[in-house]
Automatic annotation (TrEMBL):
Keywords: Aminotransferase, Pyridoxal phosphate, Transferase. GO terms for molecular function: pyridoxal phosphate binding; transaminase activity. This is Class II aminotransferase/8-amino-7-oxononanoate synthase. InterPro entries: Aminotransferase_I/II_large, AON_synthase_class-II, PyrdxlP-dep_Trfase, PyrdxlP-dep_Trfase_major, PyrdxlP-dep_Trfase_small. Its cofactor is pyridoxal 5'-phosphate. One of its GO terms (biological process) is biotin biosynthetic process. It comes from the Eukaryota. Pfam families: Aminotran_1_2.
Length: 455
């Protein structure tokens, strides 16, 4: 049995089996029927136990958390407040507010060249709140088709009466949607109501970067009344792009044209939580209307101290060196892959591709997120090969990504080594070669079978 066939059999053996209950309470029987629908479609999620493996999966891209750097900075911050209270003791509007969180929000906002900020417990809570709060009745939301699930969940409860998507990072599609709104709705044409645009800076499953400068230009051309406002999710660019990792908006100098930005702390910063930055009006609206802020306990002091410690680190020249090293590692991966003759053959055969790496040599910044595209379900086989070799990366399928666009999502980290990346390339190329050989053998077998039938 070939290595490819062995991994194929291993994948089949690991697929969860249906376990519909024949007896027991109706409640549990019905729940298991719903779970069986996911099992049959290979969409049942299970929690994974961490292993000591080479990390090409986690969001700790600057390796601040896993290296211990954040822990040391966190201890230093805690030491400044030896009598701190662990819990926040209530929501922000009752007993959970304090000078520390107010000052931290101001510091974070100023770091990102904004005037005010509000800290949320997570990026998910923040996004849901943003789209519940800001679009008003008769406003419109125009969004990239690949925006995060949290944005879609927020839009389900929005007051906006119109929602339109545009093709991913496609400026022409974006212009067409805006033009249609301009031509068909007087309230937008006159500037009476607002068109709110939702986009991300770096897309979490594709590694693509939004053409934000071009989008702002198009918005101003179609709506000279300047009633188009942007909400930009900077989750994967925080700590990565711009001076000291201030994000894409700051890197492009668009701070005055972007109404709201979301900077999460669970990726480049290595901790958790999120901050919405904007002006005083944005902050006041969130304090008064955001259910994700009003009806939940405020972040605890240790959470806030970790966020401040992370920002202390990313401001430093030390983290700038880590960002540059990460760029070197990602570019090394692309060169090794693109220079390998088997990659070219596998790409032409439709087995493997790295679409996010096109023209990477000419780019100032290359995303730390690299999707390895495969044919349907082959992403599970490739991921199994990686896991077997103690390289950690996972297959991504619908509904996280569009149908028929499965991939293995690679995330590179500052503390990855050149040897680890060379090993990663070897695993991927070897899988592709075995896959091509397997397909060749199957084609030969089918041809022989057809000949026998004809005889």
């Amino acid at each position: 049995m070939s290595a490819f066939e062995m991994f194929h059999d291993m994948i089949v053996a690991q697929k969860p089996k249906a376990r519909t209950l024949k007896n027991g309470p109706t409640f549990y029987r019905n729940l298991e029927r719903r779970l069986d629908n996911r099992r049959k479609k290979d969409r049942l999620y299970v929690l994974k136990t961490p292993r000591n493996v080479v990390d090409f999966s986690s969001n700790d891209v600057l390796s601040l958390s896993t290296s211990g750097l954040l822990r040391m900075a966190f201890y230093e911050e805690l030491a400044k407040y030896p009598k701190f209270v662990v819990g926040s003791c209530g929501s922000r509007l009752l007993d959970g507010n304090n000078t520390y969180i107010n000052n931290l929000e101001k510091e974070i906002a100023q770091f990102h060249n904004a005037t005010d900020g509000v800290i949320f417990s997570s990026g998910y809570d923040a996004n849901v709140s943003l789209f519940e709060v800001f679009p008003g009745p008769k406003d419109a939301i125009v969004y990239d088709e690949l925006v995060h699930a949290s944005i879609h969940d927020g839009m389900r409860n929005t007051k906006a009466t119109i929602r339109r998507s545009f093709s991913h990072n496609n400026v022409d599609s974006f212009r067409a949607v805006l033009q249609e709104l301009h031509d068909s709705e007087e309230v937008f044409r006159s500037g009476e109501r607002t068109v709110i645009v939702s986009t991300e800076s770096i897309y979490s499953m594709d590694g693509t970067i939004a053409p934000l400068t071009e989008m702002v230009r198009v918005a101003d051309e179609v709506f000279p009344t300047r009633n188009v406002e942007f909400i930009v999710d900077e989750a994967h660019s925080t700590g990565m792009l711009g001076k000291n990792g201030r994000g894409l908006v700051c890197a492009l100098g668009l701070e005055d044209r972007i109404a709201i930005r979301l900077h999460t702390c669970g990726k480049g910063l290595g901790c958790n939580g999120a901050t919405v930055v904007g002006n005083e009006t944005i902050r006041t609206m969130l304090i008064n209307y955001a259910h994700g802020l009003i009806y939940t306990t405020a972040p605890s002091f240790p959470t806030l101290a970790a966020i401040r410690a992370a920002y202390t680190l990313i401001r430093s020249d030390f983290c700038e060196e880590r960002r540059l090293r990460l760029q070197t590692l990602v570019r090394h991966f692309y060169r090794k892959m693109f220079d390998h003759p088997s990659f070219t053959i596998a790409k032409e055969a439709g087995i493997l591709d790295l679409p996010s790496g096109l023209n990477f040599e000419g780019k100032e910044f290359v995303s730390q997120i690299v999707p390895v595209w495969t044919r349907n379900e082959d992403n599970h086989q490739l991921a199994a090969n990686m896991q077997y070799a103690d390289y950690n990366a996972w297959p991504i399928d619908f509904p996280v990504v569009p149908r028929d666009q499965g991939r293995v999502r690679l995330v590179f980290h500052t503390d990855n080594t050149i040897d680890e990346i060379d090993g990663l390339v070897e695993i991927i190329i070897q899988w592709a070669e075995e896959k091509m050989e397997y397909m060749k053998d199957r084609t030969h077998w089918k041809r022989q079978l057809i000949l026998k039938e004809k005889l």
